[in-house]
């Protein structure tokens, strides 16, 4: 199906279990491992067919599982590190703030450095992006920014706000004065508040545009900080302001 729609990157089929139960996570991980060789075989067949028709190559990523259990994460990464895939996804990190960095770090210490590592489902909290960057991830995805936007939760440089709160009813400033997204350049906080209070879908659209722009901008600055070797100090400054 992914080859037919022209996906650039495919995540191999993986079994997810949002659980603190070691046995449940082990079962999900084992099933993920059992499916992976079948995914690779089919992917390679379709890749050969695409090449024969002069169609673009599409990449396959294996997804490391194991939840919050270090032994399972280590086993899964060891199982996948030498397989003929184009990159790796790090999946199902339903973790607390304290556990997240260590899981990412130990996984990426095992996975090869010459292939991209994608952090799946991370970014509901901007802080998660810093953890991924600090510990070896190259790309990220998450539905969090748009899910939160649809419920009126808006990211700003001084932290997250609830645009439904009464104090925004007569706030005729942009949501974030330093943001240059379409929403902030054309609409006020009061207008967005009105849209949410009247359950007008345009409000959810504008809030989503803003939240996505905010996250992409943070990642741009993370990339710049990596180049300048200032990532840790940027993280400290950002978090001090955002999570004050």
Can you offer a commentary on this structure?
This protein has 244 residues and is of the alpha/beta class. Helix content is 52%, strand content 11%. The chain has ten helices and seven strands. The protein has helices at 2-5, 22-52, 70-80, 99-110, 126-134, 144-150, 182-186, 189-197, 201-227, 231-242, and strands at 9-11, 59-64, 87-90, 117-119, 139-140, 153-156, 159-162. Helix 5 (126-134) runs parallel beside helix 9 and helix 9 (201-227) packs antiparallel against helix 10. The longest helix has 31 residues, at 22-52. The chain is globular, with a radius of gyration of 20 Å. The model has no long low-confidence stretch (mean pLDDT 93).
In the sheet with the most strands, the strands line up as 1-2-3-4-5
Could you give the count of β-strands?
7
The termini sit apart by 45 Å
Helix and strand string, N-terminal first? HEHEHEHEHEHEEHHHH
Rounded to the nearest angstrom, the radius of gyration is: 20 Å
Share of residues in helices: 40-55%
**Number of contiguous helices:** 10
User: What general form does the structure show?
Assistant: globular
Name the assembly state: single chain
Tags for this entry?
single chain, about 240 residues, alpha/beta, five-stranded parallel β-sheet, 10 helices, globular
Set out the fold topology:
Blueprint: H1 2-5, E1 9-11, H2 22-52, E2 59-64, H3 70-80, E3 87-90, H4 99-110, E4 117-119, H5 126-134, E5 139-140, H6 144-150, E6 153-156, E7 159-162, H7 182-186, H8 189-197, H9 201-227, H10 231-242
Parallel strand pairs: 1-2, 2-3, 3-4, 4-5
Antiparallel strand pairs: 6-7
Helix pairs in contact: 2-3, 3-4, 4-5, 5-9, 6-9, 8-9, 9-10
């Amino acid at each position: 199906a992914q080859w037919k729609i022209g996906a650039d990157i495919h995540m191999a089929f993986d079994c997810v279990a949002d659980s603190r139960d070691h046995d449940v996570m082990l079962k999900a991980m084992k099933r993920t491992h059992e499916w992976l060789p079948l995914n690779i075989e089919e992917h390679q067949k379709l890749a050969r067919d695409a090449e024969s028709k002069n169609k673009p190559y599409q990449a396959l990523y294996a997804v490391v599982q194991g939840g919050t259990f270090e032994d399972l994460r280590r086993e899964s990464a060891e199982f996948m590190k030498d397989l003929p895939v184009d990159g790796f996804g790090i999946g199902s990190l339903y973790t607390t703030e304290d556990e997240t960095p260590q899981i990412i770090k130990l996984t990426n210490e095992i996975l090869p450095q010459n292939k991209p590592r994608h952090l799946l489902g991370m970014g509901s909290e901007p802080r998660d992006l810093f953890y991924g960057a600090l510990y070896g991830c190259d790309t990220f995805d998450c539905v969090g920014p748009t899910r939160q936007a649809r419920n009126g939760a808006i990211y700003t440089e001084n932290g997250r706000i609830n645009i439904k709160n009464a104090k925004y009813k007569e706030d005729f400033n942009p949501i974030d004065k330093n943001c240059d997204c379409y929403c902030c350049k054309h609409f006020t906080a009061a207008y967005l508040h009105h849209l949410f209070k009247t359950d007008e879908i345009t409000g959810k659209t504008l809030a989503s545009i803003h939240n996505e722009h905010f996250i992409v901008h943070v990642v741009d600055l993370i990339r710049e900080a990596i180049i300048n070797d200032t990532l840790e100090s940027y993280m400290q400054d950002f978090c001090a302001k955002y999570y004050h």
